[in-house]
Amino acid sequence: MRLFDLTEKIQLDSDSRRQYDIARLVLHVIFFLTMLFVMYRILFPIVPLDFDMNSPTAIRNNISSPRIELTNDFPAKKMIQTNDTLLFNANPIGKFSETTISLTLEKGSSDIQDTPVKIRKSYQSFFYPTGKQVGFKDSTLLFTSNGNYYMISNGALRKFADTNIILAMGYPKSAFLEVTVDDLKLNKPGPDIIDANIYPDDTLFAIDDTYYQIKNQSLIPFVSATAFLTQFDSALAISKNTDFLSNYPESETYAGFADGTLASFADAVFILSAGKSYPIENEVTFAAMGFDWNNVIPVTSSELGAYKKQKQFTNNSPHPDGTIFLDQDSNKLFIIKDKQKLSIENKAVLGTYSKQKPIIANSKDAQKEYSCNLKKSFFDSSTYKCNIPLEKFASLIGNDFEVSTFFKGNVTMNHINATFSTPLAWDSFMNSLSIIKKRLNKNNL
Predict the structure, then answer these.
(1) Residue 204: which H helix or E strand, with range?
(2) What is the pLDDT of residues 285-333, one digit of tens each?
(3) Region class of 208: left (phi > 0), else alpha (psi between -120 and 50), else beta
């Protein structure tokens, strides 16, 4: 006996049976078409990126940093003045064949029909303006062939008055790096070191198992020996006994890892920079940002706890201070600092900064621009669009597209959209299958 079988005795007349069969067929067709649509979106993705100029702090905004080129600031009252250039960054993950740029204006704005939109590709922080050449790092000890000895303190080159002071202070002579007189010009000159009883700022000490750095006549402990060694060689530290601690107050803050250090704890990877830790969103973001797994250093909870945790580091985030890039085109290195990339052109200087493998970039490719001209939308007279093919960007390094538009009249912007699409083509199909296979293999490990 079948319990609760409510359909056993139901009999449909011919018209009802026909309607039932048609409804079932329609349901199957809808299900089949839905599955096709889902598979199409998986295999040939379309990524729309947006920015609402009326709500610039909204979480839903996923276009980065709309700004006026001249001031590098968000447009006041959403207005771009005559002869100003609007910049923004779009960071889709994946391979795409085309992007559609769409700008929606407020009524009364100037007509921007046929205004060119330019786009180029690299990393967001590699688009930063190039600043001055960087000098030797603080705490570095130097000497020249003419017998002069120096230390870098607070960015300045300070000369030891004589070698007796070096010996009295306890600096190991083996820690001094030989450089040329011209190399010394990379740092501004500072006062001579004349008193063996007053250690200059940035002097390093090793006391028992802890490293310290002196700042403003206070001792700042490093959070760990591992952190110290990401910045300095152990030979730079003057060995002292614990009695030395009574000579200086000990800071309540800690010195940490070199800015830009990649650190792992539990199942997460972080970027450590300027006292802040940025958890990297996932492996896809890690790879898209050009990071190298060989650079990742395991850290403890106490080491990580010395940093103030920030929101997730995503593909929209610029590389933080301390990140080092190697420019393939010029073979020069750059370090990111205060939204500039400072060149490291001296091999001796490089040795005082570079502890990790740099991220590869290419300045020549970063200057390649492609453009399209905006056309008024057929459906909305306040919206202007144009399409840019992306095939020529496929071989270029970086995850960031910087978009720029020069306006000949005053415009007030309401909305920005950049939609990235993938073609219905065999190469795209095989590439998507390859990505899915890799992800499945990782999940099965």
Answers:
(1) strand 204-207
(2) 999 999 999 999 999 999 999 999 999 999 999 999 999 999 999 999 9
(3) left
